[in-house]
Specification:
Layout (H helix, E strand, L loop, with lengths): L8 H29 L21 H24 L5 H41 L6 H46 L1 H4 L5 H40 L15 H20 L3 H24 L6 H49 L5 H18 L1 H27 L5 H4 L7
Helix pairs in contact: 1-2, 2-3, 3-4, 3-6, 3-10, 4-6, 6-10, 6-11, 7-9, 7-10, 7-11, 8-9, 8-11, 9-10
Length: 414
């Protein structure tokens, strides 16, 4: 799955994580200061934020782009020398470009959060003091939003185009690897599906979850300081009372609660999804044989195989009922949790409408980042089932035991 596309996967991913952490530490410890020496200093802390597309071409942003590119090319150069790989341009540079775009989108969200504070304060002023705000100011605020959103849309569309090619390159690498070993793999149950379908689904799932995870980490880095700063406007929390940085700690505690709750509730689902794929593959395989051999795919055999499919799906549906109930209860509660925390502050009128919008948005960004497992658990379940199928597939090449679940008679699965 991985060695077909990445050089020495275990070592590669460990080194990528270590290098990424090192680069982030260096950036926050000295990178920004060194940018100031080069004439690319950030604006003063009390300066009004720039809320136009020119924001992303300001000196401190340009310096970050240079720093990011330098870190990536150093990492790429090392692996190109240490363990050359035929897919290294796509696996290393392509992945780096996707990460860069994810970070850019996070910065767009930060810019839009700055816009909410200024614009909704302007709206509140216009509503409470008629005639104090001109139509030109309101139109200008709308134009700011649309201009930044346009940049985000263009980058998003171009990135989706690139990501689709990146996914297909990974599928191609896996396909080439499995086809080269097809004489040894062809006897494995559902071999054709694992090569033709599971490879594409696996690369898609890993890309989706990988980008979501990286986006969560970068969003935390960007929005935790924002939420900590906004906590100065909050007097106290319900039940808890007055604590330092109340919004930040409340967001972390709430998100961790959901991140533990959902995996516990849905712990059985990955295995059930895997078994579901097995019975579907067995049913489809018999039908394919029946296209060329009149003695295959006879009604009694198909009835038995489809009965296994039915049992598998009904079992899966049952377990998804309680999982979905808990998941959606948590998600709907999450929609109003930030407002619930702000009730004491709102009741005494300590914040403006603009600050309220900023707090709710920043709180949502932080909790969604921490809630990676909550928001992605269904996708993770499907990925685990696909991974198990491909891992068992590859075990044949390595002479390893296929595992108990692979040895279950298909007609009894479910």
């Amino acid at each position: 799955m991985f060695k077909s596309f990445f050089p020495m996967p275990k070592v590669f991913f460990i080194s990528a994580l270590a290098w990424g952490i090192f680069a982030v530490i260096v950036w926050f410890a000295a990178g920004e200061q060194f940018g100031s020496v080069l004439g690319m200093a950030p604006p003063p802390a009390d300066a009004a934020p720039v809320i136009w597309p020119s924001r992303f071409l300001m000196p401190e942003y340009l310096w970050f782009y240079i720093y990011f590119a330098a870190a990536i090319f150093i990492f790429y150069g090392f692996w190109a020398w240490y363990a050359p790989h035929p897919w290294q341009n796509w696996s290393i540079l392509g992945s780096s470009l996707i990460i860069f775009v994810v970070n850019f989108n996070v910065q767009v969200n930060v810019a839009l959060n700055d816009w909410r504070g200024a614009f909704y304060d302007l709206v509140q002023k216009a509503l409470t003091t008629p005639g104090s705000v001109s139509t030109g100011e309101l139109y200008s605020g709308i134009a700011q939003f649309l201009s930044i959103a346009l940049i985000a849309i263009v980058v998003l569309v171009l990135n989706l185009f690139f990501v689709r090619h990146w996914i297909f390159r990974w599928r191609t690498a896996m396909n080439d690897f499995y086809v080269a070993n097809w004489p040894r793999l062809r006897t494995v149950e559902g071999a054709s599906q694992r090569v033709q379908d599971d490879t594409m689904r696996f690369s898609n799932a890993v890309e989706d979850l990988g980008v979501t995870f990286i986006d969560s980490i970068m969003t935390l880095i960007a929005f935790l300081p924002v939420l900590a700063a906004l906590s100065s406007h909050v007097t106290s929390l319900p039940v808890v009372g007055v604590i330092p940085y109340p919004l930040m700690f409340a967001a972390i505690a709430w998100a961790l609660f959901g991140s533990v709750l959902l995996p516990l509730v849905g712990i059985k689902l990955p295995g059930l999804e895997f078994r579901n794929q097995r019975v579907e593959a067995a049913f489809r395989k018999e039908l394919v044989y029946g296209e060329d051999d009149a003695t295959r795919a006879q009604p009694p055999t198909l009835a038995q195989l489809f009965a296994a499919v039915r049992r598998s799906y009904f079992t899966l549906y049952f377990h998804y009922v309680y999982f979905d109930v808990v998941r959606w209860l948590y998600i709907q509660t999450d929609n109003v949790f930030a407002t619930f925390l702000l009730v004491p502050t709102l009741a005494v009128g300590k914040i403006t409408f603009g600050i309220y919008q900023q707090v709710v948005t920043a709180f949502s960004q932080v909790t969604n980042s921490f809630q990676f497992l909550v928001n992605s658990w269904s996708d993770i379940i499907r990925l685990i089932s696909i991974y198990k199928r491909l891992k068992a597939f590859e075990a044949t090449l390595e002479g390893e035991d296929l595992g108990k679940i692979e040895k279950e008679p298909v007609a009894q699965v479910g």
